Amino acid sequence: MGNRPLDILNNALNKSVLIRLKGSREFRGELQGYDIHMNIVLEKAEEIKENETKKLGTVVVRGDNIVFISP
Length: 71
Fold this sequence. Notes:
Elements: H1 5-11, E1 16-21, E2 26-34, E3 40-49, E4 52-61, E5 66-70
Antiparallel strand pairs: 1-2, 1-5, 2-3, 3-4
């Protein structure tokens, strides 16, 4: 297991992750890919709002909007 942030993301590929964006929006889904700018591709994504979830399918999240990613 690596200590660098991208190593941690690499270990989380094809696993469920939680992402919080600016403005307190949260998404959960399977991490399918990422790049050096932290742009993220999620499959089976859901947006989480006040204990409700909205299924979205496949989404791309722009890296400069991400506050944190929890594997």
